[in-house]
Write a structure and sequence with these properties.
alpha/beta, Threonyl-tRNA Synthetase, Chain A, domain 2, 5 domains, 11-stranded mixed β-sheet, 4-stranded antiparallel β-sheet, 22 helices, about 15% strand, elongated, binds adenosine-5'-triphosphate
């Protein structure tokens, strides 16, 4: 009983006034003083401006009584204090505004103290002035966010032993705590036998115990100690607002692509070369947003050819059409495209074997081939052939630089669990999911238990990434490209796109052979009519500008200007870079 009494008393705060006790013995006065002293100690930070004012008044009264001639010395000390703050205050106060505040407080306090020493602290207007200066200088102090956070941490650290018991982490200790930009961080030492998973499983209880908003506490394991972890409390959400896309910095597909930023403001930079990637999340979670960020970066590189599969009828990838070498918009085209990718893969593999090399190193002349597939699960449902090819690419494509970037809304067992595709995905980007088990489906069995809580991501574009170098669950938010930015970026990058290398192009030459048949069938009496007929009858992959020049017998400028007119009127569409066909065909 004697042990529990003081423990409970420690928890009383402003919101929970101390209950009324009827105490019958003489210790009442002693208890009241002890409670008052504890209260003063607990709120010492908030009371600091008042305490300083009282100390100044007391000291001034003392000096005025016996040593009033010392006022010039007080003034000189004030000048020295201000000089020290301005010259070397950076050691204690890293922000300029804080140092300026400290200097102003020193001038006000020193000035008042010197005057009060000379004339007496009670001589008017000095008492009123002291009250005014205390309130004016106290206001920034009371409202200062970092000070308040520091005080809150101190109280939390003191209360941790009780809190730990309540939330089921009894025996854990706070080793250190610091305030950071968005809240505070504490290093925890766990009781022997406790693990980071125990802490992760108690996250909602910790949030409740700390009185923070749901979803505001993160736990990061300590790579060096299984019985240590870092607790990160975010008082403000660093990802509350969309983050605009900064222009890409890389020059080659070998450079990492910057997807967004983590909560500590470090960029999420991931290398796509020789790796397959999966982007998954529910509708509206921001998959297309992430594809846009990746495409905006990739289309700037001269050593990557991009093919697209978009089973939403080309809706998602259409803005990038002028930068894509090829687009498939239905399951049949998708199967053909993937079959061609496997042909390229085989041709490259055979060449590498002949050369005794192991890796296809991309250059602008021999680019890497990345196949961007939106709605990947649809493909699984509608084209088993396509899945067989995708499986092949997933297993054998890395070394020869033929890789997949798949986005899916439904990480179904059929699409993700079977075959090699999911297990071969080196980079997994998990946006918001509906159910916990979807996290395991995307990131791998056991991910949810290990703290990858994708179901708690609460805004589009927020994601978790599991990839080489990213093995702890850290929340990030992808950059956002507006539609206008997507169009402008595609326009800026379209003339820099490389073509497939001769080896790969020859391996799939049959695709262009289909197109040649059409060339022969069109008669170019009337160039306008010939152009339109050709566009109407163009194959799914479209016709190139040089083919249209041949068919119409007209020059490049004429063909371009007619195509622009048709495109402007919505009559033709650019199927992929430099390939056109009529928007609606008979
Ligand atoms: N990184 C981001 N930051 C802020 N908002 C975003 C971000 N990414 C996407 N959004 C917003 O979320 C909405 C849905 O995004 P998006 O279309 O990318 O989702 P999706 O997962 O592709 O959806 P669907 O599966 O229906 O195609 C859009 O209005 C977009 O503006």
């Amino acid at each position: 009983m004697r042990q529990r009494y003081p423990t409970r008393r420690r928890r009383w705060g402003r919101s929970e006034p101390m209950p009324l006790y009827v105490v019958t013995d003489d210790r009442q006065a002693g208890e009241a003083i002890a409670v008052l002293a504890r209260w003063l100690f607990r709120y010492r930070s908030e009371l600091a401006p008042l305490t300083t004012a009282l100390l100044l008044a007391g000291a001034a009264a003392f000096l005025h009584h016996g040593h009033r001639g010392l006022w010039p010395d007080v003034l000189a000390l004030t000048v020295v204090a201000v000089a020290v703050i301005l010259a070397s205050g950076k050691r204690w106060l890293d922000r300029g505004i804080e140092r300026a505040y400290a200097a102003v407080v020193a001038i006000a306090a020193g000035g008042w103290f010197a005057t009060a020493t000379a004339h007496g602290p009670t001589s008017p207007p000095l008492p009123g002035l002291l009250v005014a200066v205390t309130l004016i200088c106290g206001a920034p102090w009371w409202s200062h966010r970092r000070r308040r956070s520091r005080v809150r941490i101190e109280r939390t650290v003191n209360a941790w032993p009780d809190l730990a018991e309540t939330i089921g982490l009894a025996g854990s200790r706070v080793l250190s705590a610091v305030v950071d930009l968005w809240g505070w961080r504490a290093r925890l030492a766990l009781k022997r036998g406790q693990t980071v998973t125990d802490v992760i499983n108690r996250l909602p209880a910790i949030e409740s115990g700390l009185g923070t908003r749901p979803g505001s506490v993160r736990v990061e394991p300590d790579p060096a100690r299984a019985d240590h972890c870092v607790l990160h409390v975010l008082e403000k959400d660093p990802h509350a607002r969309p983050i605009p896309w900064p222009a890409p910095t890389g020059t080659s597909v070998a450079d990492p692509v910057e997807l967004g930023v983590f909560e500590d403001a470090t960029p999420v930079r991931v290398r796509l070369l020789h790796r397959h990637a999966l982007v998954a999340g529910i509708a509206g979670s921001g998959k297309s947003g992430i594809l846009n960020v990746i495409l905006a970066a990739l289309t700037a590189y001269p050593d990557v050819v991009i093919w697209g599969i978009d089973l939403k009828g080309g809706m998602e990838l259409q803005p990038w059409a002028s930068c894509l070498d090829r687009i498939a918009t239905d399951p049949r085209q998708a199967a053909e495209l993937l079959a061609d990718a496997v042909t390229i893969l085989d041709a490259r593999a055979a060449t590498l074997t002949r050369q005794g090399a192991r890796l296809w190193i991309p250059t602008p002349e021999e680019p890497t081939l990345i196949i961007v597939a939106d709605e990947y699960a649809e493909l699984a449902d509608e084209s088993p052939d396509a899945m067989a090819h995708a499986d092949s690419i997933a297993r054998r494509g890395r070394a020869v630089a033929v890789t997949l970037l798949a986005a899916t809304q439904r990480p179904t067992q059929a699409a993700m669990g079977k075959g090699a595709v999911r297990s071969q995905m080196d980079i997994r980007i998990c946006l918001r999911v509906r159910e916990r088990r979807d996290t395991d489906l995307i990131l791998g069995q056991g991910a949810h238990t290990a703290g990858w809580h994708a179901h708690t991501l609460d805004a589009p574009g927020k994601f978790l990434i599991s990839a080489p170098g990213f093995d702890v669950p850290r929340r990030a938010r992808a950059y956002l490209l507006t539609d206008e930015r997507v169009r402008a970026t595609a326009r800026a990058h379209r003339n820099r796109r490389p073509r497939l290398d001769a080896l790969s192009a020859d391996a799939i030459a049959h695709t262009t052979a289909d197109v040649e048949v059409i060339d022969a069938e069109i008669i170019a009496d009337d160039p306008e009519q010939a152009l339109w007929t050709a566009l109407l009858e163009a194959p799914d992959v479209g016709l190139s500008v040089s083919q249209l020049m041949k068919i119409t017998g007209m020059g490049r400028t004429w063909v371009y200007s007619r195509l622009q007119e048709h495109a402007h009127a919505g009559r033709v569409q650019q199927v992929s870079r430099g390939r056109w066909r009529a928007a609606q065909r008979p």
